[in-house]
Amino acid sequence: MWMDNEFLQGEMQQIEEQLKKALKTRNKTVQNALIKLQQSGGKRLRPVLTVLGATFGNYDASTVIPLAASLEVIHMATLIHDDIIDDTKLRRGSETLHSMLGRDVAVYTGDFLFTRAFMLIADIAEVKLMKDISKGMAYICDGEIDQNEQRYSKATTVKQYLKRISGKTAALFALSLASGGYKTGCSKRITNKLGVIGKDIGMAFQIIDDILDFTGSESKIGKPAFNDVIQGVYTLPVIFALNSKYKAETEAALDKMQQDAGNSLKEVLEKAGVIDKARKIAMRYVEKARSKTLELPDALGKEIILEIIDQQISRKF
Amino acid sequence: MWMDNEFLQGEMQQIEEQLKKALKTRNKTVQNALIKLQQSGGKRLRPVLTVLGATFGNYDASTVIPLAASLEVIHMATLIHDDIIDDTKLRRGSETLHSMLGRDVAVYTGDFLFTRAFMLIADIAEVKLMKDISKGMAYICDGEIDQNEQRYSKATTVKQYLKRISGKTAALFALSLASGGYKTGCSKRITNKLGVIGKDIGMAFQIIDDILDFTGSESKIGKPAFNDVIQGVYTLPVIFALNSKYKAETEAALDKMQQDAGNSLKEVLEKAGVIDKARKIAMRYVEKARSKTLELPDALGKEIILEIIDQQISRKF
Fold first, then answer.
1. Which of A115, A144, B115, B204 has most Cβ atoms within 10 angstroms of its Cβ?
2. Distance CA A179, CA A61 (A)
3. Three-state secondary structure readout of A146-197
4. How close does chain A come to B306, measured CA to CA in Å?
5. How many structural domains comprise chain A?
6. In Å, how far is A27's CA from the nearest CA of chain B?
7. End-to-end CA distance of chain A
8. What is the pTM of this model?
9. What is the ipTM metric for this complex?
10. What residues of chain A score a pLDDT lower than 70?
11. Which domain holds residue A257?
12. Could B103 and A122 be called an inter-chain contact, meaning their C-beta atoms sit closer than 8 Å?
């Protein structure tokens, strides 16, 4: 498993230390909540991708680690704001920050983390990255705004769905992998390729994440099942079902979501075979990412990127 | 009046154009709301201070204008997030963004504006300013978090109040004036002095703003009277009253705030003379700011800064 790679473990430990510093604040309540947030972990996929992308150039931990940490901090900030909107109580199996601190403090804590991310990037004195990362963050906001506009809309198209997850998730994956390469002096061609690979990994990641909302158990995915649908966020399987001969049944199942805890929706999604259909779309992104990774020059990170890509389809949480 | 100054008017027009560009987004609903937000105006004090600070160095509009605009964008973003928390419906006499778009989209629109502010700063390629502005934003978050922790607390001290407004307001005023000087190559001594003056103006500004919550009319201040107290935000006059012989009466008036629309609170604040007492504190900051401004070398902005300082005490909105 790639998590056992010695080099990566060393770097990840440094990233955790950097994160710990970045999450320091003088308010004790907020500080404790942020410590819990860090301890509850998460996959740390974004900083891992940054480190891996950086192995294609002249790797230098003193700049790669703060950069990688900044991308995780941005991710944490967006999670905090997402959880406020969706009123999510559990994340990664732990109480969410807004559930611990209340909505009000959570808004500012998210903002605070954005400022910390920018300080980390400013520390490594990289204006071009500042612009790219700001742009990436703007894409995330766009994606989230799209998601909110499409909430409870049974007319959401596959194209709209793909555009929205491209903004809310894939943009940051792309940025994570590409910025690592950029920072260590990779050519424009390789940096761009890393970006495309990152984007495809992000697309696959989010589609699988959305599928797990239907198939995963609360204990494994660390949040309540059917959370998205309850929040009116209709993802790929539902969109497929709404565009199949099971349209009427799906609509009815969505409408009585609250009463039967998703049982009839689960049934119609199974009948329509749309979970598999969505998984195939994710598989396509995985294959694109894999073939482009094989075109990359040899580097320490290449094998690990391939492992991460392959893992996307089989992951259970 | 300083607003009629020809130089400043020209610069402000450019700032409005820069703001218009910075607030561009592909989502039409958000775009319209942001256009309304810009049109509803506001005093634009922060970018004005940046322009004025910049006149103490080698003024160059091509960098000063984006910098000034970025500080207004940060201010707008924090206003949007504040209005969500306080559930404010009116701001500057216009419907607030979260009232137009809903809480959810407003959270992301605030985030989106932060990214735009950072893009502006990255565009003028200034790493040191990035750090300073990130730090300034962190202070704002700290101040807002403090304010939330102190909400409905009758034990809030004057010291806590001053610390919280120093974070939530004065830090950005300080940054606005100082960054203008810094960007145009002022000496460290002058830049620092501009920062101290900006901070004192911000302190006076916020104390007066808090007083206007009690004394202003909705039509003039553009938001409902007694809004702060209703939200549990106890400002200087209330804190003074709670520390006077009218303590019990003030407590009782706060408790029945919702029923009698603030009538008894207004009465006890008048009796206790705490509005004047708070105004005197603001006056002290004004005097400090004025004497430090007089120590500055001659520059186009010096007289205007003095006018802005003097205006703080008499302003009615």
1. B204
2. 14
3. HHHHCCCCCCCCHHHHHHHHHHHHHHHHHHHHHHHHHHCCCCHHHHHHHHHH
4. 32
5. 1
6. 8
7. 16
8. 0.90
9. 0.87
10. 92, 217-224, 316-317
11. 2-314
12. no
